[in-house]
TrEMBL record:
<feature type="transmembrane region" description="Helical">
    <location>
        <begin position="364"/>
        <end position="385"/>
    </location>
</feature>
<dbReference type="GO" id="GO:0008514">
    <property type="term" value="F:organic anion transmembrane transporter activity"/>
</dbReference>
<feature type="transmembrane region" description="Helical">
    <location>
        <begin position="324"/>
        <end position="343"/>
    </location>
</feature>
<feature type="transmembrane region" description="Helical">
    <location>
        <begin position="487"/>
        <end position="508"/>
    </location>
</feature>
<feature type="transmembrane region" description="Helical">
    <location>
        <begin position="454"/>
        <end position="475"/>
    </location>
</feature>
<dbReference type="Pfam" id="PF00939">
    <property type="entry name" value="Na_sulph_symp"/>
</dbReference>
<feature type="transmembrane region" description="Helical">
    <location>
        <begin position="190"/>
        <end position="213"/>
    </location>
</feature>
<dbReference type="GO" id="GO:1905039">
    <property type="term" value="P:carboxylic acid transmembrane transport"/>
</dbReference>
<keyword id="KW-1133">Transmembrane helix</keyword>
<dbReference type="GO" id="GO:0005886">
    <property type="term" value="C:plasma membrane"/>
</dbReference>
<feature type="transmembrane region" description="Helical">
    <location>
        <begin position="291"/>
        <end position="312"/>
    </location>
</feature>
<feature type="transmembrane region" description="Helical">
    <location>
        <begin position="233"/>
        <end position="258"/>
    </location>
</feature>
<comment type="similarity">
    <text>Belongs to the SLC13A/DASS transporter (TC 2.A.47) family. NADC subfamily.</text>
</comment>
<keyword id="KW-0812">Transmembrane</keyword>
<keyword id="KW-0472">Membrane</keyword>
<feature type="transmembrane region" description="Helical">
    <location>
        <begin position="90"/>
        <end position="109"/>
    </location>
</feature>
<feature type="transmembrane region" description="Helical">
    <location>
        <begin position="20"/>
        <end position="39"/>
    </location>
</feature>
Amino acid sequence: METQVRNGAAPAAQERFDTIRGRAGLVIGPLAFALVLLATGGLPWSQRALAAVLVLVISWWVTEAVPLAVTAIFAIVLCVFLGVADEDTVFGAFGNDTIFTFLGGFVIARAMTVHGLDRRIALRVLSAGAVVSSPARTVIAFGAMAMVISAFISNTATVAMLFPIGIGIVGAVSAINREQDGRDLRYSRWSTALMLVIAYGASIGGLLTPIGAPHQLIGRDLVEEQTGRTINFVQWVLTFAPIVLVMFVVLCAVLLWLNRPEVRRLEGAAEYVAAQRAELGRFSRGEANTCVAFALAVVLWTAPGIGSLVLGDDHGFVKLMHEHLTEGVAAVFAATALFLLPLGRSAGRREATLTWGEAVKIDWGVILLFGAGTVIGSLSSKTGLAGTLGSALAEHLGVSSLTAITILAAVTGLIISETTSNTASAGIVVPIVVPIAVAVGVNPLVPGLVATAAAGYGFMLPVSTPPNAIVYGSGMVPMTRMLRSGAVFDVLGVAVLVSGVLLMSHLVGF
């Protein structure tokens, strides 16, 4: 009975909230669209129309009145219909190199899931030494795995993979603990910390690489579009790796401090992990082939950046790599390898590592969302709306220094990400803060990167991110504990993010 209440009440309340929010958005969006058209008569028509479309998109993205991808496609169709730009300009954004980076990365991640490589890695880490015998070490180990894995596959997929393993360990430990002293650890402070570290670790770990989360590729592309600067794979990693490591230490300290484990030893956890590893069997050909494809992607992604560091940007071979070995090209090469590397023969037919039937199960909605976000960001620059908006906001808010604008970017991204998706947050915040930085004459790359990273925050509410929703649905995370832990980490995380990007931007050379 207790489990039913814990697992059923929260999703029902969240569903009611989402329904009310969606219905409100259906009304607010069109009203805001009409109001902006009427209130911006002093602007050129292209800016007025684009501003109205942008307000409609923000309203529907925040309230999720319509699926995000549908809103995105509808927005770019409206841009053509209202004469903001012609169809070749608008739909041409879907030929963007980052689209193919998405495709390749998603296909490789799909292969990891299909062949169980991600699960094998997780269980191998947990079986090392006496990791799962200690409550604190178990929390740290799960957080570390979530952080590293989410650097290369989506945070939602990472949590979906680690979540059942965590549930299994909690269940095994609780069964033994109930027999010994009658306490049920399924609803303990320790289980709360374990669930939260899986969700939060995946969210911060995506920052390690630009492909770690869809909103980062979207935000980076918008920053590059509006600043004219290129941020390659190696530059991104060098910038954010130290920040992520510091944030992970802060995360573990916060969760273990606010959710202090009730026991000192987890009886039965090691046996559960050993049993799960035994079920996996031997390392398969599919897992080996997936490792080869993944290694190929990493080598090709990092080669141009490493070449620049070693040989310099002016070297002929480095220039050739930057021109022809883009991230999208590298991702497609690696993904194609999965359809070429054989598993063997089945019924006389050659069987590849990944079939097209499995590959098409990637999230195509995110790709549509990215294309539309690129269109709106590009049009905001071409029509002059970005400059108009940036100058007005800079004057109204009174911000003039790089530090003040960077803090504004982080706080704005954080607040919006608490109520809507990460991808939508990046599409909303980046086009606003970059023009503000340009208007006051400071380096726009820094607040743009911070806004992109902050769009992946949102640790307080189940609706903030899919990872939060997944672990909250376990019934092991009371709302009060999520709010308290998330609020503390939000504040500390923003401080680390802002100071870290300001420091690393100088060292990396942005």
